[in-house]
Amino acid sequence: MRQRVAVVAVLAATLLTGCTHANGETGPSPSPHESSSAVALRGDGPKPPADGAWVGAAVQPTTFTPAGRIQAFQDFERVTGRRLDVVHTYHQWQAPFPDAVDRHFLDQGQQVLIGWAGSDCPGIAAGRYDALIRQRARDVKAFGKPVLIALRWEMDRPNLRTQVRSAADFVAAWKHTRKIFAEVGATDVGWVWAPTAKGIAEGYAQRFYPGDDQVDWLGVDAYTGPRLRPFATVLQPFMRFAGEHPGKPVVVAEFGLADRDGKRPAWLAAAQRYVRQQPRIKAVLYFNGNSQQRAQAQLALQPSRTGRAAFHAWLSDPYFNTAKLKVTQPE
Questions:
Q1: What is the mean pLDDT of residues 57-86?
Q2: Which of 46, 71, 266, 308 is most solvent-facing, going by the fewest CB within 10 Å?
Q3: How many CA atoms lie within 13 A of 33 on its CB side?
């Protein structure tokens, strides 16, 4: 799931991890580590809710202009029945941020998770892009509002090897980028490390972890893939990993499911129950987009009244409405 110059490419690529769903499983009870909601963030980025969790989304627009992208989020909020806590945007490596879309939602008091594509990790670590990184840090500092940044999300994907190169290259690039932000004084950032759930389950994503002193939020992009599995099953290996790194809030930075012969509502309801059992999970972001013609890649909720109603159940649940926002009936 990446983003190129146009948000269209980002949203298109994002679905390549796949999506599958489940039946009505609630999942296992939380472990002692997972049930600890205490967090200890190092920077001045967004602070997670003490109780409950935020709900957000990435939304694929029809028109890839700032106005079109903003409208897509507003339309999604209207048809699902509530303002989002977190808006997930994507930026290619060279693109400036916060851009007009980020600024619009930050000015409205919403949280923004910026996916920053961060290609050429060896070049980043070697200082080739220091001027660019320093400018982004200045822009974030000047804007003066806390943001979440996921640097080169899904860094563990094999098809990103030409950009990321090795795990050591990624870690060096991460540390170098964060060091420049600190030197500039851009401390209003929550740094989100967001590998794939598949990479964690298969044991190779862990090598890309920069360290507890470098990461503020533990993120994950969690898709079920071709075989339909419960959300709890998809997320369980990552939650075990999170249990080894206590004190850090968890954000499911991307998840979603196609209709799958009408199974989506039950799958989303089971996912909702599972997240309620995991106090470490402080934000859950749905990926509302269609990247390919394959039926399994059609994650957008808009065509499906039952899908919208299932997501509305998250938005109307007090556990996921920590700001007590007004809730209306989904359209």
A1: 97
A2: 71
A3: 14
